[in-house]
Amino acid sequence: MTSNFANRYVSLTPEHTTATGARTYGTKSAMTGHGAAAVFGEVDDESFALNFDLLTRGDMSRYGARKSINGKEYSEGGMNLVMQPDDTLGLLLYGLYGDNATVNSAGYGITGFVHTWKEASDLVLPSFTIEVGREEKEHTYTGMCVSSVSINASHGEYATISADFTGRSESAVSALTTPTFGGATLDGFHFANGTVTFSSTGGTSTLSTTIKSINLEFNMNLDTDAACSIGDRTYIRQPQPQMREITGTVEFSVAQTSSADANTPDYETALATGGAIYDSGGSATHRAIEVAFSNGTQSLEIALTKVRWEAPSQNVSGRDTSTLSMSFVALLDQNDVMSTIVLTHTTASTILASGEKYSIA
Predict the structure, then answer these.
(1) Which of 19, 91, 199, 354 is deepest in the core (most CB within 10 A)?
(2) What gap in Å lies between CA 198 and CA 219, rounded to an integer?
(3) CB 355 within 8 A of CB 127
(4) Cβ atoms of residues 197 and 285 within 8 Å
(5) Percent with pLDDT over 90 in the chain
(6) C-alpha closest to that of 337 among 147, 149, 97, 146
(7) How confident is the model over 301-320, as a mean pLDDT?
(8) Contacts (Cβ under 8 Å, ≥6 apart) of 260
């Protein structure tokens, strides 16, 4: 019996002419700067698919529809994978933060082996060509833009990331290629090596020891309607982001009604008159929420600078231990920044090393 597992893969290619060149929306181009035309990720599963609106015509003289054509054609879907410090993670974060003249530029903020992503008011987001190997044929989706990213971590599990895309209609299927996984020697970030800290005012931080799980979701709210035009069935221009949304939920293993310090959120925090806001006040060391992961060699830090806590959720039953779930919404801080992500490598042999560039600056 022949195994088809070697014929299953997902690859990402930024649609740039060069690492410092113009974007070419909807056209795959062998971008320079990371040493390969396509980046293959160690993906758990994918769900990319062609969609189209079916326009069906009926008339008053017949009892059923007689004519039908395709309307708008587009592709949607996503992939789920363990977060590990490879080029796939780098491209997903690049798709989420993009570039501008001073932020995330020159290799999206590389200093040595430290990579920093954060928002700016004039972010330029990339598009990707995604190629999916499905045992018999390779399926190509062009003009794919990151629409949302979800990061999840639970006690005793690998930290995972899910990314959803939307873009042009699927291209014709083609022959399979042989994938080369740049992150084959790397392992994923594990919650056992993770920390979650809170800061209500940016003066001090508190490391929580009662976190059961945490999830973050970044939503770009892409305007796909504006990407179409009369005379074309699919997107002819890149869908542009609307209001950026960052939300999440923290689950505590202890159903704490109140805490011993001013930083750790609790049930009473959410009951504050007018609601509760954690604002780091521009502090670079004490963020409203900071999540850190490590695999022993590389590390990833995700910081939210200002958050608004939503209503808490606490339930009991006859079988399960009572826990506390607190959801939040990220807000712009005084510097018009919502989040910062820092990926740190410690050796020159790792990919995403100094000099690697996905940006156009």
Answers:
(1) 199
(2) 23
(3) no
(4) no
(5) 47
(6) 97
(7) 88
(8) none
330 has pLDDT over 80: yes
Query: Do 79 and 89 contact (CB within 8 A), yes or no?
Result: no
d(CA 108, CA 114): 10
Residue 321's nearest CA partner among 260, 254, 257, 262 is 254
β partners of residue 248: 216, 328
Q: How many C-beta atoms surround the C-beta of residue 213 within 10 A?
A: 19
- Locate 128 and state its tokens: 């990707």
325/66 Cα distance (integer angstroms): 54
Question: Measured between alpha carbons, how far is 111 from 276 in angstroms, rounded to an integer?
Answer: 36
Q: Using CA atoms, how far apart are residues 244 and 246, in angstroms rounded to an integer?
A: 7
Residue 180: predicted pLDDT = 86
Calculate mean pLDDT across residues 146-165: 94
Alpha-carbon distance values, 45 to 155, 158, 163, 341 (Å): 22, 15, 11, 25
In this prediction, residues 91-118 reach a mean pLDDT of: 67
Residue 255 burial (10 A CB sphere; 0-12, 13-18, 19+)? middle
Q: List the one residue out of 175, 177, 159 whose CA is nearest residue 10.
A: 177
pTM to 2 decimal places:
0.90
CA pair distance 224, 74, nearest whole angstrom: 10
- DSSP H or E stretch at residue 144: strand 137-154
9-68 residue pLDDT tens: 999 988 875 555 567 888 876 554 444 468 899 999 999 999 998 889 999 999 999 999
- Residues 224 and 218: their CA atoms lie apart, in Å, by 17
d(CA 200, CA 205): 8
Buried b or exposed e, range 12-42, using 16+ CB within 10 angstroms:
bbbbbeebeeebbbbebbebebbebebbbbb
